[in-house]
Amino acid sequence: MEKYKSSQNPIHLATLFERYYHLVYGTCLKYVGQPDDARDVCMEIYELLSTKLLEHEITYYKSWLYRVTYNQSIQFLRRKNKTNEILKEYRLDQEENMEFNLFNHPTINQELLVIHLENCMANLKEEQNRSLKLFYFDQKCYNEIVSITGYALKKVKSYIQNGKRNLKKCIESKSE
Prior knowledge:
mainly alpha; Rna Polymerase Sigma Factor, Chain: A; 83% helix
């Protein structure tokens, strides 16, 4: 460690990292779970060490390296979870956009479809009907619907989801 600090020669850093690689990899694997991801985190740690070793006064290298490894693994998991959330949100948006594809269908009479929509909306439960109207027609967000109706947030989401599903079924059955 002292050799690298004084010379900043990457060979000294590689030698030092190689000596503890099995511990770093094992720790990464423990927290990250996937071998490929663990190797990626190990490479991030190696790149990080070149600057961190120069910035910090390190007394016990092994325990310090464990802490860096742990922090980097947790940071990797946070990034991965954020990416997964974005992908889930994208998929939900895509499903939502595809859900009412009847309106874009060229063979379905649009005027008849609007009549079916009005009839089906009238057949929904009051909570679903009200939540759907506020969400789609009045362009209100979930929190605004909660304020207006007094329903719980989870209930509003449920009413909208179930209402959309029921509407779709009703419209499809009348359009056949």
